[in-house]
Write a structure and sequence with these properties.
DNA-binding, alpha+beta, 2 domains, Transcriptional repressor NrdR, elongated, 3-stranded mixed beta sheet, single chain, DNA binding, 148 residues, 6 strands
Length: 148
């Protein structure tokens, strides 16, 4: 590891700490030439998840996009930002645990809907209406009947 101050190649690790979620390692290093200290972070590079859209297009999985969609469904409900972050984390964890890096958008929608249904029925209906593309009032009514 090169020193960011003097560009010397030889540095020593002085201290190592794991992050709270155990996904990152923080290392304090010291340059053997100028004796200045600096911090580096080490984490596993993950293989990107690919989302297969309904029309067959493929896009890279975007946590922020998923979170924005859930946030819209949860406006003016009891669902808090911590709950939404947990849903996004859980969905990504489930997707990464699958045998493939390519997943249909339908599967992601099902996972989110399943989790929202347990937390807040209104947020679930809002999300389902977009995810399942309710065309008319009858589709909406059928989903409400399932909840009741």
């Amino acid at each position: 590891m090169r020193c960011p101050f003097c560009d010397h190649q030889d540095t020593e690790v002085v201290e190592t700490r794991d992050s709270e979620d155990l996904t990152t390692i923080r290392r304090r290093r010291e340059c053997t030439k100028c004796n200045k200290r600096f911090t580096t972070y080490e984490r596993v590079e993950r293989v990107p998840l690919i989302v297969i859209k309904k029309d067959g297009r493929k896009d890279q999985f975007d946590r922020d996009k998923l979170k924005r969609g859930i946030l819209k469904s949860c406006e003016k409900t009891i669902v808090g930002i911590d709950d939404i972050d947990t849903i996004v984390d859980d969905v990504e964890k489930e997707l990464r645990g699958m045998d493939t890096v390519e997943v249909e958008s339908k599967k992601i929608g099902q996972l989110v809907a399943q989790k929202l249904k347990k937390i807040d029925k209104i947020a679930y209906i809002r999300f389902a209406s977009v995810f399942r593309r309710f065309v008319d009032v009858e589709d909406f009514e059928k989903e409400l009947q399932k909840l009741l």
